[in-house]
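Quick one:
INPUT:
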């Protein structure tokens, strides 16, 4: 099953290989990003994101320094990071060319982050032709951080090269000169570009993330409607033991709402990751393994007869010819956030049901799902699979679940929006608020939500704006009958 190793060549809208003159579509666009085979001695099937650049008089050429940078990072550089980095280097290529033709007095290293955050539609000349929309400071900070990592690596290699690219040599030289002038006593890599950017260019600086949004949770009163009406199969009839439900989507939603998982995490589960709780034979114990470092299933451990355990990355590669979903192409990829592990040696965390009755519901529906809806032979170990059409038997995707969840929400007469708490991640918010309402200790909440930092739970457990208003009104009523209250002052007209 080599579907996780297929080439994705349509990363950008226009391919230079098929349209050599594609720069005519947009006069300031001279780059393209593809996902294509770049074989190595150790991995002849390796896929990397590749940046192609050109100018008005040349054909597209692969930008080799970026390929070498990805090879230098190795497995630390995940496909999504490769794609975003390649895209940022391509934008930088376009900007340097446009800046050279403009009359801007600002140096490139200061003008680029300013244009990224503020957009270019308000500028004049060639820079305006870039047609960049404004970006939020938070988004720009993350994207510039990726670019800065590449340029730092490039600076380390600067002394041993002759020429990298006509558009990047002047930028690298200007950046090094600025560092030497302002930070003469510090090594080149010690300072971020953020020290030089002005105004909105302060997005280069790295600041701790502050959660200032109201984390809206899915309405608890509508959960059963969502599970048993929203996810009902079209034309299904409850007969012969069939519930008439899409059990796959129901199980995923239970994992999010009653187990507190992030929306991407269920898509890494193997069938063998679900077992019986040793403390309750009627409840399920679900183990969430690290998609690469987690231990492979037991049947893959015994034949090897070696001291070190077989990890999932090796198991997927050798037994199934696959790569972990963190490394798969965009269609099959599932993200992973470094969560707190209950068993670091085996690299897994346990799903903690709350209320605990949901563990029994999950185990019963899990058995029905395996017997009635999951194909018997699919050629891979993943629990959730597509069960119809051309994709039948392949691992189920996060995008497909989001679409199914949206359809189920609309069946209830609700609108789909993050601000309304009707998206998949809102179930995790509901889980966190349920833990907070039960007044469980913060340490318990941290473990249940698999947070590595105790501060991470605050966005999920802090009171909602409505709860703040109701609480303040309730306490205001208690104060109204007391002497010296605001109402007493008002009754006297505010006289001193």
């Amino acid at each position: 099953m080599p579907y996780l190793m297929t080439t994705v060549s349509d990363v950008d809208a226009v391919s230079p290989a098929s349209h050599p003159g594609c720069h005519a579509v947009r006069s300031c666009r001279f780059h393209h990003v593809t996902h294509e085979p770049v074989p190595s001695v150790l991995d002849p099937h390796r896929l990397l994101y590749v940046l192609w650049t050109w100018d008005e008089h040349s054909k597209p050429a692969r930008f080799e320094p970026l390929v070498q940078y990805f090879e230098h990072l190795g497995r630390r550089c995940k496909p999504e990071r490769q794609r975003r980095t390649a895209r940022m280097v391509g934008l930088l290529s376009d900007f340097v060319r446009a800046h050279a033709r403009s009359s801007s007095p600002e140096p490139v290293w200061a003008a680029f982050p300013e244009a990224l955050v503020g957009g270019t539609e308000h500028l004049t000349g060639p820079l305006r032709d870039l047609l960049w929309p404004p970006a939020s400071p938070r988004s720009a900070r993350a994207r510039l951080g990726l670019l800065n990592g590449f340029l730092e690596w490039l600076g380390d290699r600067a002394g041993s090269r002759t020429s990298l690219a006509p558009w990047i040599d002047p930028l690298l030289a200007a950046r090094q000169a600025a560092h030497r002038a302002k930070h003469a006593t510090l090594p080149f890599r010690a300072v971020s570009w953020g020290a030089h950017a002005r105004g909105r260019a302060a997005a280069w600086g790295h600041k701790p993330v502050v959660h200032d949004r109201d984390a809206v949770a899915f309405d608890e009163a509508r959960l059963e409607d969502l599970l048993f009406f929203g996810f009902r199969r079209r034309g299904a009839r409850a007969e012969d033991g069939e519930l008439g439900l899409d059990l796959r989507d129901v199980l995923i939603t239970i994992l999010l709402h009653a187990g507190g998982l992030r929306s991407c995490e269920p898509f890494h589960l193997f069938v063998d990751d679900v077992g019986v709780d040793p403390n309750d034979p009627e409840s399920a114990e679900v183990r969430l393994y690290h998609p690469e470092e987690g231990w492979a299933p037991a049947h893959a451990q015994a034949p090897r007869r070696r001291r070190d355990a077989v990890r999932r990355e090796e198991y997927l590669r050798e037994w199934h010819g696959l790569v972990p979903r963190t490394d798969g192409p965009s269609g099959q990829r599932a993200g992973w956030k470094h969560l707190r592990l209950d068993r670091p040696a085996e690299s897994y965390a346990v799903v903690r049901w709350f209320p605990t009755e949901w563990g029994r519901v999950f185990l019963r529906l899990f058995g029905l799902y395996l017997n009635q809806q999951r194909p018997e032979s699919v050629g891979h170990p993943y629990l959730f699979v597509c069960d119809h059409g051309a994709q039948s038997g392949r691992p189920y995707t996060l995008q497909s679940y989001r679409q199914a969840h949206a359809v189920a929400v609309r069946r209830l007469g609700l609108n789909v929006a993050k601000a309304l708490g009707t998206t998949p991640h809102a179930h995790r918010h509901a889980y966190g608020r349920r833990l907070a309402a039960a007044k469980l200790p913060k340490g318990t909440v941290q473990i249940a939500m698999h947070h590595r930092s105790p501060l991470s739970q605050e966005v999920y457990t802090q009171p909602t704006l409505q709860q703040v208003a109701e609480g303040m009104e309730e306490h205001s009523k208690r104060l109204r009958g007391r002497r010296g209250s605001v109402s007493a002052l008002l009754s006297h007209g505010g006289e001193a």
